[in-house]
Specification:
Elements lengths: L1 H45 L6 H15 L2 H48 L1 E6 L9 E3 L7 E3 L14 H18 L3 E4 L10 H11 L3 E8 L9 E5 L11 H19 L3 E6 L4 H4 L5 E8 L3 H7 L2 H18 L4
Parallel strand pairs: 1-4, 1-5, 5-8, 6-7
Antiparallel strand pairs: 2-3, 6-8
Helix pairs in contact: 4-9, 6-9
Bound molecules: zinc ion.
């Protein structure tokens, strides 16, 4: 029996030992698996193909920072800054341009629309047929003046004032229409008599934004030259309320006219002796383009080139007066 017991005990001992070793093996296997998994996980993290974009960027940044020298970093930083600035400018400019373009487009459209609603009346001074009779100097005036005058004549060119004024007026009409205005003329031929009151009535009936009266000057002194504009005075017994606007129109036109032509400026002459101005119920000015009694200025005013400058200057003055600049 003792042997049997021993054998049993031995058997149990063997069983125990075997069992323990088996458990250890399992544990070892588990550890190996965990280690392998860990290794796999780490490998996965290090696999560049599986990296996310974020980690890729970080990795690149770190690597670059490590490998760059200071000077390289500085120069690159500078170039990056420049590039960033350029990009900012490039991005900013198109936006500004777009905004500006849009604003300009809107402004231009608005201006054109507004201008089309505004009427400019051009009055080519005098005529080949002088209106007969006389008219009151102004509304309610007991003083009478000739309905019109024959005007002056070019001392060198021999051209009559009424012919020059009509020529320039046609060009001015075209220029102002190109700028969007509606333009009416008090006469379109040299064969019709038109009195000063009739001329003013064209502007009044139209409700013109400006009444531009085109003339050329004359003097006994042939050396006198230059342009001037003429409007009523603040003390006008006829249209005191129009002084400011007529003076402004006169200032704008003489300024731009002399700028465009380079001629001598005679400034603005304020007088209440011009019946056409006195009868006007809208801002009015007489534009004396130059002296036909000055040989040089007379010949100059006959050239297409100088006429174009005159037209440009007057139109610029109208634009300035109406706030389109
Ligand atoms: Zn005249």
């Amino acid at each position: 029996m003792k042997n049997v017991k021993k054998i049993f005990i031995l058997f149990c001992a063997v069983l125990l030992l075997t069992g323990c070793s088996a458990q250890e093996t399992n544990e070892k296997n588990e550890q190996t698996e965990t280690a392998e998994k860990t290794a796999n996980t780490e490998q996965t993290k290090n696999d560049p193909e599986i990296q996310t974009e974020d980690s890729e960027d970080e990795g690149e940044t770190e690597t670059e920072t490590e490998t760059k020298t200071e000077s390289e970093t500085e120069s690159e930083t500078e170039s990056e800054t420049e590039t960033a600035e350029q990009t900012a400018i490039t991005e900013q400019n198109p936006k500004e341009d777009e905004t500006t373009d849009t604003a300009e487009t809107i402004t231009a459209e608005t201006e054109t629309t507004e201008r089309k609603e505004q009427i400019i009346v051009i009055d080519p001074g005098h005529s080949g047929v002088v209106a007969e009779g006389s008219e009151p100097l102004g509304p309610g005036s007991g003083e009478y003046k000739a309905a019109d005058a024959s005007g002056t004549r070019g001392v060198s060119s021999g051209v009559a004032e009424y012919a020059l004024t009509l020529t320039v007026s046609f060009q001015l009409k075209e220029e102002l229409e190109n700028r969007g205005y509606t333009v009416l003329m008090t006469r379109e031929s040299n064969d019709v008599p038109v009195s000063c009151v009739q001329r003013a009535e064209v502007a009044n009936t139209a409700g013109a934004a400006a009444f531009i009266r085109i003339h050329a000057n004359g003097s006994e002194n042939q050396s006198v030259q230059g342009a001037m504009t003429i409007c009523t005075t603040p003390q006008s017994p006829f249209v005191p309320g129009l002084y400011e606007s007529s003076r402004s129109l006169s200032d704008c036109i003489i300024g731009r006219l002399c700028e465009a032509t380079g001629c001598v400026s005679g400034g603005v002459w304020e007088t209440d002796s011009m019946s056409g101005n006195n009868w006007s119920q809208v801002p009015a000015t007489i534009v004396e383009m130059g002296y036909m009694t000055n040989p040089d200025e007379d010949m100059l005013m006959q050239t297409a080139e100088y006429q174009a400058k005159i037209v440009q200057g007057i139109a610029d003055g109208v634009d300035a007066f109406l706030g389109y600049e």
